[in-house]
Specification:
- By secondary structure, the chain is mainly alpha-helical.
- The chain is 62% helix and 0% strand.
- The protein is built from 15 helices and no strands.
């Protein structure tokens, strides 16, 4: 990956991911690779032994950390196919991948790293058989109530998968928990997940949530949540605030 460095693209990414002093991505370092390049490398490297992935996750380079996360995604998805759902060995390795993901969750330290990994690892894991002791909710609550922005974002964005599979409960729970979060990145994530829940499960459930919380949710969250509604309904909710 280092041999593919691109200085022009690196400068674009430094600006795009807000790496300046005081910005959310402060200090993040880039090689200048585009996501399709990183995806291709991850696919080629999906047989990398699991215990070697942390070396990628701990890299100083943003794209290398992303590659490590995408390898975990590749491995997890392969073991989540229908024929492996109840397979004890597959379950054991899925649990190992999930445990590694949680252990290194702070290394998913920008929004793209979270968004490209959380739904496909954590989001799928909560719907599959597991041997991990303790409730799934307790595990995710630890992320949600941590003081780390990226762990908090994981606890919201993973619900894209659960909503897509028809379960609104996770989205509604963590949207309520994060509703008063101070950071704009969480405002966007919460609104985005509410929108996806409405689209994939029930617009009436979304309307019910908005009715209860419209007066306390950030403007950005509301805008994202109502994006798929008609112009008239969007105007109604914006005025209701």
């Amino acid at each position: 990956m280092e041999s593919l460095q691109n200085e022009e693209q690196r400068q674009v990414l430094i600006r795009f991911f807000k790496t300046g002093e005081g910005e959310y991505g402060e200090g993040d370092e880039f090689l200048g690779l585009k996501v399709p390049q990183t995806r291709a490398i991850a696919k080629e490297s999906k047989e990398l032994p699991l215990d070697e992935v942390p070396e990628l996750l701990m890299s100083r380079w943003h794209e290398v950390r992303l590659c490590g996360l995408l390898i975990l995604v590749e491995k997890f998805e392969a073991l989540s196919k229908k024929k492996f759902v109840d397979d004890p060995q597959a379950m054991l390795i899925r649990d190992k991948i999930l445990t590694m993901y949680l252990q290194y969750s702070a290394q998913a330290n920008n929004w793209d790293l979270v968004d490209l990994s959380a739904p496909k690892i954590l989001g799928r894991w909560v719907m599959l058989p597991t041997g991990i002791k303790g409730s799934r909710q307790q595990i995710i609550d630890e992320l949600a109530y941590s003081d780390n922005l990226w762990k908090q974002r994981i606890s919201m964005v993973f619900t894209w998968m659960t909503s897509r599979e028809g379960d609104p409960s996770w989205c509604l729970r963590y949207a309520e928990i994060h509703l008063r979060h101070p950071h704009d990145l969480m405002h966007k994530a919460t609104g985005w997940m509410l929108r996806e829940m409405g689209k994939n499960v029930s617009m009436d459930l979304l309307r019910e949530f908005l009715s209860q919380h419209v007066h306390e949710m950030p403007r950005t969250t509301l805008r994202y949540a109502i994006e798929k509604m008609s112009a008239d309904e969007r105007q109604y909710w914006m005025k209701a605030q």
